[in-house]
Specification:
Strand content: 25-35%
Keywords: Oxidoreductase
Structural class: alpha/beta
InterPro entries: FAD/NAD-bd_sf (IPR036188), FAD/NAD-binding_dom (IPR023753), Sulphide_quinone_reductase (IPR015904)
Oligomer: single chain
Number of strands: 23
Protein name: FAD/NAD(P)-binding oxidoreductase
Radius of gyration: 22 Å
Pfam family, one: Pyr_redox_2
Helix content: 10-25%
GO molecular function: oxidoreductase activity
């Protein structure tokens, strides 16, 4: 049972729209709101001073991008007219249309948008925090470690290269194997595959959740002679000894523990909603922000919306999903404020550019239920096959689309679908 907090004390400030989180989702939805109504009173709450283009870290780990190119000062990205509150949220008081900041100030709102991202739970793997960044242990899921991935890939001459994937849900479900394919591609080009033995240790039961893309991926698994171990969850790392401990789940549900030596270990940590979300009245039983999957409005609090990685929608947790969700939430918040009349509808779109080799990508695009949702006709770009055009999209088009489009309120290829009337959304 969640704790019941007393009614908040006197309000210290109020805004028409409060946005919790200044990541991709938060800045994009703020920009989309103001592009529709420049006179809105909008504030973003986020203590961070740096904003990261996290989809670029896969290419940092492959020596294609520099780490520095994936970061910007947060102040430079705040949409004009948005008030930035450099604070953390302590708790929510939705019954009073208010929240409490870490410094105990109370802010009221007419509409609340919740998009704080998710928590990378490094400490859930015993010994991992102490091992990261040395002993051959790395992760493209952290800005400071992605360059170390590329160092290890270049330096490794022989031995065991392990790539782990935790139980779902995680941010960008394809990223664990993206790191593996790009590493293997480099070793193949250098003539080291054979001396280096790659192994994919996946806690899940399939290579990728949308079956249409698996055949192309399996061709690369064969090409790189990757050993696939499903049902293997990383639970401990001994950095100095270079040994990783996994719990293996067998077909009958029983479990066994096993250790594997490594010369390189690329780790993806388990992930969950941030603590202040999981402990709040906004959370579902699993700790995620509890929203309707189509309107993205909270199921219990009509003036709260959620988007991005912290919600309980079943879409892939990617920047591409947030890009599609931001216009939907912006539209629907304005409906709630009586500024618009037609609700918008999110179909679960997500995208995962699977970097299978340097210069080629399998571009997975899909909606709820794993339904394929290609952005381009097959004659131009067939996402089910590895193509150079998809690589150009990832390397040269998506970064400026992110910085100059999504975060500026330009909704290129992301215009929301509107219901014929409010009852249909």
């Amino acid at each position: 049972m969640r704790p019941i907090h007393p009614a908040p004390r006197a309000v210290d400030g109020s805004h028409q729209v409060l946005i919790v989180g200044g990541g991709a989702a938060g800045i994009a939805v703020a920009a989309s709101l103001l592009s529709r109504d420049p006179h809105l009173d909008v504030a973003i709450i986020d203590p961070a001073d740096t904003h990261y283009y996290q989809p670029g870290w896969t290419l940092v780990g492959a020596g294609v991008f520099s780490a520095e190119s994936t970061r910007r000062d947060m102040a430079s990205l705040m949409p004009k007219g948005v008030k930035w509150l450099r604070q953390a949220v302590s708790r929510f008081e939705p019954e009073h249309n208010a929240l409490v900041l870490a410094d105990e100030r109370v802010l009221a709102y007419d509409q609340l948008i919740v998009c704080p991202g998710l928590k990378l739970d490094w400490a859930a793997i015993d010994g991992l925090p102490q091992a990261l960044g040395k002993h051959g242990v790395t992760s493209n899921y952290r800005y400071d470690l992605a360059p170390y991935t590329w160092e290890l890939v270049q330096q490794l001459q022989e031995g065991q290269a392990l790539f782990s994937q935790p139980p779902m849900p995680i941010k960008c479900a394809g990223a664990p194997q993206k790191a593996m394919y790009l590493s293997c591609d480099h070793w193949l080009r250098q003539g080291r595959l054979g001396a280096i033995k790659p192994r994919f240790m996946n806690a899940g039961g399939v290579l990728f959740g949308v079956a249409d893309y698996v055949p192309a991926l399996m061709e690369y698994v064969k090409k790189y002679a990757i050993d696939l171990d499903f049902g293997h969850n990383l639970v401990a790392v001994d950095g100095p000894a270079q040994r990783a401990t996994f719990v293996r789940t067998l077909a009958d549900g029983t479990q066994q523990t096993l250790e594997r030596p490594f010369d390189m270990l690329h780790v993806v940590p388990p992930q969950c909603a941030p603590d202040f979300i999981r402990q709040s009245p906004l959370a579902d039983a699993a700790g995620w922000v509890d929203v309707d999957p189509h309107s993205l409005r909270h199921k219990r609090f009509a003036n709260i919306h959620g988007l991005g990685d912290a919600t309980n929608t079943s879409n892939a947790k990617t920047a591409a999903a947030a890009r599609k969700q931001a216009p939907v939430v912006a539209n629907n918040v304005l409906v709630a404020l009586k500024r618009l009349t037609r609700l918008a509808h999110y179909d679960g779109y997500g995208s995962c550019p699977l970097t299978v080799e340097r210069g080629k990508i399998v571009l997975a695009e899909f909606t709820y239920g794993g339904k394929l949702a290609p952005s381009f006709p097959a004659w131009l770009l067939d996402g089910r096959q590895p193509t150079r055009r998809a690589w150009w999209l990832k390397e040269m088009i998506l970064p400026p689309l992110y910085w100059r489009g999504m975060l500026k309120g330009h909704e290129w290829l992301a215009h929301p679908t509107l219901a014929t009337d409010t009852a249909q959304a």
